[in-house]
Amino acid sequence: MTAELVRGQNHALPQTRLEIRVAAGTPVVAGATLGDENGTVRGTEWIAHPGSPQLPGLEVSKQAAADHRLAVDLDALPATVHRVTVLLALPTGGGGPLRFGAVAAPFVAVTGLDGAEIATFTLTGLDSESAVAALELYRRQGAWKVRAVGQGYAGGLEAMLADQGLPGAAALARSIQEAVGRAMARSVAPPPPRTPDTGRTTPGTGPVPAQGGPRPAEPLTEPAAPPGATINYAHPRRQTSAPPPPPPAAPPAEPGRPARPVAGDATGWSMDERLYNQIWGMFEDLARTTAAYRSAVDFAESRMEKELDNALSDPRSRIGGAGDRARAEARAKHDELTARAREALDRDLAQLAAESDVVEPALPAAFARWDNPVWHAYRVPMEIPMALRLGDLHLPEKPDLTIPLLVRLPLERGLWIDSGRTSSEAAALLDGDRLRGLAMESAVLLAARLLAVYPADEFSVHVIDPAGTAAGALAPLVRSGALATPPAPGAGGVSSVLAHLTRRVDLVQMAVRARAADSLPPDVDPAEQLLIVNDFPHGFDDRAVTQLRYLADEGPSVGVHLMMVADREDAAGYGPVLDPLWRSLLRITPVPDDHLADPWVGHAWTYEPPRVPPGSRVLEQVLAQVAAARHTRR
Q1: For residue 197, which of 139, 245, 134, 140 has the smallest C-alpha distance?
Q2: What is the spatial distance between Cα 226 and Cα 236, in angstroms, rounded to a whole number?
Q3: Contact between residue 190 and residue 205 where contact means Cβ atoms under 8 Å apart
Q4: pLDDT tens-digit series, residues 531-578
Q5: Which residues contact 492 (CB under 8 A, 6 or more apart)?
Q6: How many CA atoms are closer than 13 Å to the CA of 200, on its beta-carbon side?
Q7: Which residues have C-beta within 8 Å of that of residue 5, sequence separation ≥ 6?
């Protein structure tokens, strides 16, 4: 039976291998400190946090997330550790809430590895605090217990670490928040919230969903009301009815065999929304089943090492063959545990692969790869889709099982296609010129896809190419006439395009604030705008850099989006001035690279950029239709 704890209450732990699950409703930083018999944290090496997520017997998430799973093996902790304190803090610098009183009360559960809850604690009563010691596991007379703490700190992470007696708390708090900021910059968009009826996910937090679908939540503020009037706190655009259930499933599988997968097996108002939700569910399922496998392998290895150490430390094992037998038994247990874990993983992977095989052919053009037959029947759409495919993601346990990387439309953050030499093997095999060429080709493919999935005249693309090095890659866009204007060369072109788009952002912002969108000047294009910048910072002066940062910060909210094709090292001369710019963009690469993280577990996923099949003319055919539709509308 689950123990529902209140602040200060404790409960015995029946096992030593545990998961601590956190549900906060908004991204939080999760960490843990180890304490000795006096509760003292002896140094930074006794703290698990996103910048250093693993300690013996303890592992935390590598990034801020609304949901966390912390792995704890109490038997694997150092013998001097008598206390594990779980810490939560709000990330800084991301535009999120600044105090726990502004968000839903965090919920923490201590569970077994099978997911069965042992004890739960809801952290109520928080107000101005931005960090909290949620609960602690402690050893008393050889037995472990859990205690609900709920001690909040208005001074944030620094105050909480200092309260645990840690020297250099301020510097450590800064380093933790910096690590969180770096992880958030490389993370894909957080998953949509769960619906209770499916266990899979519903649409994400993008600003505009598919036509006819429920709009996402926006920050609520208390509306003004006359004295005595009843205030309605309902979101003015939120649907009050649940989305329709999934379509009827396939006939039941034979006994003992997994159910046969069906495309669109998720909730949603349309088939596209159901497919979107299903892909998010596959993404999460693959992340979590791989995490379970890796955790089991780590446990098997740590157990074998512990048993081998015990065998070697026992003098009796050095006589005769006792030591050899002990080592053989330890390795046999290790092999048995890893084999069972791999068997479970392979079973889950086979089911996900079967689901992928039926989902991929059913995807609409916005979600599909360029080799999908849906592109051969392409027609310019009448509505904006809810999401766009940027490429594919996979894990090393099964590289041929790929998950579409979908981002909501309109884009909530810009894109940075890294043309520099990364740490990946694929990048190491190419010279710098080839990498830059591939990066620009990736930009063209993504721009073409955006043009193709928007209705005619509702999306425009501008290009800054100061040195003219991207002429070859830009040829499909230029020849088709899909660009709003020819690529802008030189410093004069940089200045002209940036001034034009900056003016558009300013005018639209003023019109929105004045609620006078119809009063925009006739020369202001109301369509969504994409700016592709090649070879940054070539051709940019300080004023142009400032305008670029302004577009990155303010542009997405009024329909101006940025796509940088750049090597960060080329802009190193600007120092930390450009750090906020890079962090604001989703970094993708022109070659496979394992730099993206999922929002549940924090695995490093290998990103595969989109590619047109060799010899295919699908890109030219699609762009020709886009250009023809635009010409007809004019």
Answers
A1: 245
A2: 19
A3: yes
A4: 999 999 999 999 999 999 999 999 999 999 999 999 988 888 887 778
A5: none
A6: 22
A7: 11, 119, 120, 121, 135, 146, 147, 148
